[in-house]
Amino acid sequence: MGEPDYRRAKIILTIATLVIVTALILLFVYSKQFFAPSFKVIFFNVGQGDSTLIRFANGEKMLVDCGPDKIAVGKLGEYLPFYDRTIDYLLITHPDLDHYGGCVDVLKRYNVKNIITNGDTKPDDSYYQIWDKYNHAENANEILVNNPTTTIISGASLNFLSPDTDFNLGTASGGNNNSIVFLFKYNTTTILFTGDMETVLEKEIINKYCLPSGEISRRETSSTITCENLDADYLKIGHHGSDSSSDEEFLNFVSPKFAIISVGKNSFGHPSLRTIRKLERVGAVVWRTDEKDDIIVP
């Protein structure tokens, strides 16, 4: 190669380098603006499962459940900048695969600072053994929620209503009815997260927080009594809209404006038409992830 050709190649290489560097800088600046901290709650469409990202105004993040598989990690990549690999709080409502099956992949990709669970274990389950291994290796701060408490995170209050050792759940105890249930409040946004809560747990919560005297009949409650501990504009419907959840008395106390059903293709009949009808009767607008894809609040 002659001297002019060498100089031409060097100039081209320099220009190409400058173009690439400029593009990377612009991409970084754009991503900074696009992903600038702002309060949002995103109910991911993860198929038949649950996963919700809470982005706080100060930049902190909470992931409530991880769905059945690694799709939740892909969703996080859509809503978080590529350079952000931190999840401040991972809350697992209960260890069913459709709620925590993707949590190992979350731990592999992100630095998780705090892990909140109800304390349930499944030592004989092969996936739980893998989860337990990665959970310990993460060395995150472990927070156990096994009785009612209120926690403030990034200016939001999380009023944990369940689990509660005082509840009389009979043969329905454990599993779905040991789900972490909490009322989330931030400024004017109120969301009731329910995990896979079924009607037996709904009734125990109503009896403790809405009818402490036990003297008011069911017929009277729907029109005369409000319940500050349950009242929410947004209700994450329990157990993917199963007819084993969402009793009408419970829905009346919550009085949601919007009902969010996290559901995908399944053989269980979720969501139940009966549940949909009950939601319509209480005046809630029904949003389904299998129809609307990701659902963003507010």
Task: Give an overview in words.
By secondary structure, the chain is of the alpha/beta class. It has one domain (36-297): Metallo-beta-lactamase, Chain A (4-Layer Sandwich), CATH 3.60.15. It is built from ten helices and 14 strands. The protein has helices at residues 3-34, 71-79, 97-100, 103-109, 126-138, 199-209, 218-224, 248-254, 273-281, 289-292, and strands spanning 40-43, 52-55, 61-64, 86-91, 111-117, 141-144, 149-153, 156-162, 181-186, 189-193, 234-236, 258-261, 285-288, 295-297. The protein has a seven-stranded mixed sheet, covered by helices on one side. Strand 1 and strand 2 form a beta hairpin. It is elongated.
Order of helix and strand elements from N to C terminus: HEEEHEHHEHEEEEEHHEHEHEHE
What composes the largest sheet?
7 strands, mixed
Per the principal axes of the C-alpha atoms, what is the gross shape?
A: elongated
- The CATH topology is given as Metallo-beta-lactamase, Chain A
Question: Which characteristics define this entry?
Answer:
seven-stranded mixed sheet; 10 helices; single chain; alpha/beta; Metallo-beta-lactamase, Chain A; 14 strands; 298 residues
